[in-house]
Design a protein that fits this description.
By secondary structure, the protein is an alpha/beta fold. It is built from six helices and six strands. The strands form two sheets. It has a four-stranded mixed beta sheet. It has a two-stranded parallel sheet with strand order 1-2. The longest helix has 20 residues.
């Protein structure tokens, strides 16, 4: 089953829209001639993302594969991920690619959902995960974004957690900033 913009929870669509608005505001405040590369894990949102973000930045959409970023080493001033690490099949390789293209000291910002700290919620996440992967475009409920960052050689500088307005197995959020260690 293909995910569409309408099939995403309203809370998630709102967060993605808010991120797009913030990107546009940042670019309007500082006309730096920025070039951004982007991938979109939900194909149905690609046209919307291109429209909203391209008003603010020169964005080159490079497809859905995070495992291969078409940039030289140490050229990116920063990176961001919003609800993508749960879906990328080769998430470890994707994070290695992000680390490879970031300049030394450059930040990696993320907003992701994933494994909750409560054992009773984790139990349900593990039960639901095989079905979720099939019906939600490969989305994993049991990935721990912070553990993935650390395993990929990032140092986590800022880490916040919150709950979306969603059933517990889908609602645990991680908001973080990390840098290559």
């Amino acid at each position: 089953m293909e995910r569409t913009a309408a099939s995403l929870p309203l809370e998630r669509r709102s967060i993605e829209a808010e991120l797009a608005v913030r990107v546009r505001q940042q670019a309007a405040l500082a006309d730096l001639g920025l070039r951004a590369l982007a991938g979109m894990p939900v194909e149905a949102l690609l046209d919307e993302a291109v429209h909203v973000v391209s008003e603010a930045l020169d964005v080159e959409f490079v497809g859905l594969k995070g495992e291969q970023i078409p940039l030289d080493d140490a050229v990116a001033d920063g990176a961001a991920s919003a609800f993508t690490l749960c879906t990328i099949p080769g998430v470890e390789q994707a994070l290695a690619e992000v680390r490879r293209v970031l300049k030394p000291g450059a930040p990696f910002h993320l907003v992701e959902h994933g494994l909750a700290p409560q054992p009773n919620v984790q139990k349900w996440q593990h039960r639901i995960d095989p079905i979720e992967k099939k019906v939600a475009g490969g989305c994993h409920l049991t990935r721990d974004p912070i553990a993935l960052l650390r395993a990929a050689g990032f140092t986590v500088e800022r880490e916040e957690h919150d709950w979306m307005k969603a059933p517990k197995p889908w609602g645990y959020l991680t908001i973080a900033t990390a840098r290559a260690a």
